[in-house]
Amino acid sequence: MKLGMPGMVLRSAATRPATRRFPAEIRPAFAATRGRITMDISKCNFCTLCQLRCPTGAILVNKQEKTWQIDRMRCILCAACVAVCTRKCPTMETGYAPPVSERRESLVRFTQAAAPNPAGEPGRA
Amino acid sequence: MGTRTVIPFGPQHPVLPEPVHLDLVMEDERIVDAIPSLGYVHRGLEKLAAKKDFNDMVFVSERICGICSFIHSLAYSTAIETIMKVEVPERAQYLRVMWAEMSRVHSHLLWLGLAADALGYESLFMHSWRVREKVLDVIEETSGGRVIFGTCKIGGVRRDVEPAVLEKTLKELETIEFECSEIVHVFAGDPSVHRRVAGVGVLSKDDAYALGAVGPTLRASGVNWDARKLGYAAYGKLEWEPVVETGCDILARVLVRAKEIFQSIKLIRQAIQKMPAGPVEVRVTGNPSGETITRVEQPRGELVYHIQANGTKNLARFRVRTPTFANIPPLVKMLPGCELADVPIIVLSIDPCISCTER
């Protein structure tokens, strides 16, 4: 039955809010959600294909230093790097990258043979 | 004849979601003439197309508009596929229809909310956007993004949708359809909405046709034309009829958009049910060479892509004619004769998307 506006307003007043109390209550991410790019650096052979295919130039690969760096502020989460990698190193995670207050904090560097994941980048699952 | 006053309207105005400027020539409270000026958010898209790889331009074209994003990438991909004579797999065609219609549902709900807000009907605005949120969830579950789908590519789509997710989408659509029907019931029957919009912003059928109005603005003036009837993607294989109203006023535009929500939901349902199994993309090699014009229907009206390719990886020309651009002459026709207080709702009635227009 269609209520009309007074009915809809009364129903809203009597039921739970449609919104969530955000930090306390987080909606679980969908499996398909494009949250952020993460990197399995141990498999990487530094072919720079992802750097070439990145439409915004967010990825910087250094073969000499064996580093793979992504600028999260530039990344548009198109997953072109995920699609192009033959070794399946970059993958899409469902959790968003945490907010940063300065531009340089958005640079995340992965180094091979060192710690596989950068420290200090916690994110929501 | 009284003294004439010019009132500048925009580019910053509480009711305008985006920057457009109108010089309103007034005689007392009545508008005599309206002179639009654009150019506040120009982004130089044509130049960018000459520098970017044509494959990467899919991502750029999707970001021309934040609301009809998928339809931009669909138009761009279709244009390049026409030039390169690529046969897109059937499943991809149906997935494209599904996503295009989802963005139409969310765009129309967004507009209904904005229209309610411009009428001063806050609670209706909140309810429209509450339902829109459910549509965005469906979009996120199927494509991975909330407004930027990122799923279209030259030669098909980049992501297949699992049958289980499609089943869930069909269920979700039933809830959305019911909740939309409640909101549309208010728009169609509430006396306060009728008093505000009935008979305001009249655009006659002849004017709409002569000035080249597109989309719901055209169909609300009684012209039966919808670019989806051209049969791009899988629209030619689905059963539907364009929504036409003959009121010629803002109420008719509200009703066209409201009815198109249900039409889109039916189209999504048909597309999911008729979707064949199979691959979702074909490999496209080489560079395009040739010229084409592609027309697709956005929530706001007909979108035209003109692409000229010269066999290199960059396009020679890339021109986008967005529906709002075509709807500005009809808007200027609607304004003279109306009251100053009606200007915001009349401007909003064409669903202006200025950032698209200026590209």
Detailed description of the structure:
The complex is a heterodimer of chains A (125) and B (359). By secondary structure, chain A is of the alpha+beta class. Chain A has a domain at 29-111: Alpha-Beta Plaits. Helices cover 17% and strands 18% of the residues of chain A. The model of chain A has no long low-confidence stretch (mean pLDDT 83). Chain B is globular, with a radius of gyration of 20 Å. In chain B, a hairpin with a 2-residue loop joins strand 4 and strand 5 (156-157). In chain B, helix 4 (90-119) runs antiparallel to helix 5 (122-143), helix 4 (90-119) runs antiparallel to helix 10 (250-274) and helix 4 packs antiparallel against helix 12 (343-349). The model of chain B has no long low-confidence stretch (mean pLDDT 88). Chain B has 13 helices and eight strands. Chain B has one domain (4-358): Orthogonal Bundle (Cytochrome-c3 Hydrogenase, chain B). The interface between A and B is medium-sized, with 20 and 28 residues.
Brief digest:
The complex is a heterodimer of chains A (125) and B (359). With 125 residues, chain A is an alpha+beta fold.
Blueprint of the fold:
The complex is a heterodimer of chains A (125) and B (359).
Chain A: H1 4-14, E1 36-39, H2 49-53, E2 59-62, E3 67-71, H3 80-84, E4 90-93, E5 107-111
Antiparallel strand pairs in A: 1-4, 2-3, 3-5
Chain B: E1 4-9, E2 21-27, E3 30-37, H1 45-49, H2 57-62, H3 69-84, H4 90-119, H5 122-143, E4 152-153, E5 156-157, H6 163-189, H7 191-197, H8 205-210, H9 215-219, H10 250-274, E6 289-298, E7 301-310, E8 315-321, H11 323-334, H12 343-349, H13 354-358
Antiparallel strand pairs in B: 1-2, 2-3, 4-5, 6-7, 7-8
Helix pairs in contact in B: 3-4, 4-5, 4-10, 4-12, 5-6, 6-10
Could you list some keywords that capture this structure?
heterodimer, A: 125 residues, alpha+beta, Alpha-Beta Plaits, three-stranded antiparallel β-sheet, two-stranded antiparallel ribbon, elongated, B: 359 residues, Cytochrome-c3 Hydrogenase, chain B, 8 strands, 48% helix
